[in-house]
Amino acid sequence: MIDSMKEARFPAMTVTDPARFGRVAVLLGGTSSEREVSLDSGAAVLAALQSRGVDAHAVDGIPALVDEIRAGKVDRVFNILHGSHGGGEDGVLQGVLDQLGVPYTGSGVLGSALSMDKIRTKQVWIAEGLPTPRFIRIPAGGDVRAAAFALGFPVFLKPSSEGSSVGVARILDESALDAAEKIAGEYGGEMLMEQMVRGDEFSVPVIGDRALPSIRIVPKGEWYDYHAKYIADDTQYITPGLEGDDEAEIRRLAHAGFVSAGCSGWGRVDVMRDVERGFQLIEVNTAPGMTSHSLVPKSARVLGIEFDELCWRILEQTMGEGDLA
């Protein structure tokens, strides 16, 4: 069954000789708040590519990458930087590489910049008629209390442009507002407050024009926070997360959310199923984690695609028609 699913959803690989990729920089680390996760992801990707004979080497951060490109040491980039402000998901890196004429994995400038901004992504989804929880934008120094009372408890407060559950506060009632205000003050930037979805949590990877099997996330604690994502060993991941029409619908919705946000290449869309409102798009990650706890490899494995092949297939998408001729 898995073999037939793999054949139906994934064509034969377009590159069979690793030398065709040339010199590949696995871009990791950087200076964002997600540096440590990126280092772990990058180490795993680097080992996988090298195991298949790819001439790959690690490069830590964007300035070092630019130096290597100028020195003629890079033909293409596997971007596994996470986050913004020195991470590689906010469009800055993509603009640099476009100008330098170096192909790279993942979304381009528009998709990267837009999806890093949770508020603007949700505005696009609403304009496209796609479901997402109600929210309020809170500017730097804005009134967290007023936003919470306007939406009604419970709500989530999160930075508009961070990932990996960095700076997220769960506000169940008025007693949690003091702590939430402190988090917002420490972050100092624009915040998103959105209605809490009561229901199951899912994530749907996307590679090229295909949505992979969904993953239902069942943390042992009350919610899927940083600890549950990267540290705990008791979080359950059920793949595929749904069956039949429900599974088809969540994949369709995730792919629509991915494309409408201007994304391409590969990524992951987080979705929740509210007990009353059904599926709700939460956010897009354009350079998902690739660690032992990461979701994209778990989903790909259901289709018979192991980690090294997954990295190869992601890298393949950097090859233009001229490269494949």
In short:
With 325 residues, the chain is an alpha+beta fold. It is built from 13 helices and 13 strands.
What would you say this structure looks like, in words?
This protein is of the alpha+beta class and 325 residues long. It is 38% helix and 21% strand. It has helices at residues 2-9, 35-51, 62-70, 92-100, 109-116, 118-127, 144-151, 177-187, 226-230, 244-260, 295-302, 307-316, 321-324, and strands at 23-28, 55-60, 76-79, 135-138, 155-159, 169-171, 191-195, 199-207, 210-211, 215-218, 236-238, 266-274, 278-285. Strands 8, 9, 10, 11, 12 and 13 form a 6-stranded antiparallel beta sheet that branches. It has a 4-stranded antiparallel beta sheet with strand order 4-7-5-6, covered by helices on one side. Strand 8 and strand 9 form a beta hairpin. The two termini are 34 Å apart. The model is unreliable at 1-8 (pLDDT under 50).
CATH architecture label of the largest domain:
2-Layer Sandwich
Shape: globular
Radius of gyration over C-alpha positions, nearest whole angstrom:
20 Å
Supply the number of structural domains. Answer: 3
Give the termini distance in whole angstroms.
34 Å
Sequence stretches where pLDDT stays below 50 over 5 or more residues: 1-8
Give keywords.
Dna Ligase, domain 1, disordered N terminus, six-stranded antiparallel sheet, single chain, four-stranded antiparallel sheet, alpha+beta, 3 domains, Rossmann fold, 325 residues, D-amino Acid Aminotransferase, Chain A, domain 1, PreATP-grasp_dom_sf
Topology:
Elements: H1 2-9, E1 23-28, H2 35-51, E2 55-60, H3 62-70, E3 76-79, H4 92-100, H5 109-116, H6 118-127, E4 135-138, H7 144-151, E5 155-159, E6 169-171, H8 177-187, E7 191-195, E8 199-207, E9 210-211, E10 215-218, H9 226-230, E11 236-238, H10 244-260, E12 266-274, E13 278-285, H11 295-302, H12 307-316, H13 321-324
Parallel strand pairs: 1-2, 1-3
Antiparallel strand pairs: 4-7, 5-6, 5-7, 8-9, 8-10, 8-12, 10-11, 12-13
Helix pairs in contact: 2-12
